[in-house]
Amino acid sequence: MCPLPLAVAAPRTPLRLLGRGLAAAMSTAGPLKSVDYEVFGRVQGVCFRMYTEGEAKKIGVVGWVKNTSSGTVTGQVQGPEEKVDSMKSWLSKIGSPSSRIDRTNFSNEKTISKLEYSNFSIRY
């Protein structure tokens, strides 16, 4: 079981947008981007998925993350371009505190007209 992070950042979404949901809040934030990713290194058994979900929610992107049978972590991120770029940086350089990221591959990067997800989730 992963220990809970010591501090949880407060959401940056204005209160007036909370009722409309994250997808509605992002629909007015400019061009949307989608990218698939796979993270290699010591990324399983180190709470990587939980921290990825937390970072995605903090940044304000949607998508998913899951472990693979080959020992990597894979997923998809969608949102405004600058937020997706922030998440790409986190997935490449930071990760969970106990992880070791050897490399992160990004693929299928494209502009999208609308979000395919309403939140960020851990898949099993």
Automatic annotation (TrEMBL):
Pfam families: Acylphosphatase. The keyword Transport does not apply. It is an enzyme of class 3 (hydrolase). It catalyses: an acyl phosphate + H2O = a carboxylate + phosphate + H(+). Residues 34-124 form the Acylphosphatase-like domain. Keywords: Hydrolase. The active site is at 49, 67. One of its GO terms (molecular function) is acylphosphatase activity. Its EC number is 3.6.1.7. Belongs to the acylphosphatase family. PANTHER family: ACYLPHOSPHATASE, ACYLPHOSPHATASE-2. This is Acylphosphatase. It comes from Microcebus murinus (Gray mouse lemur).
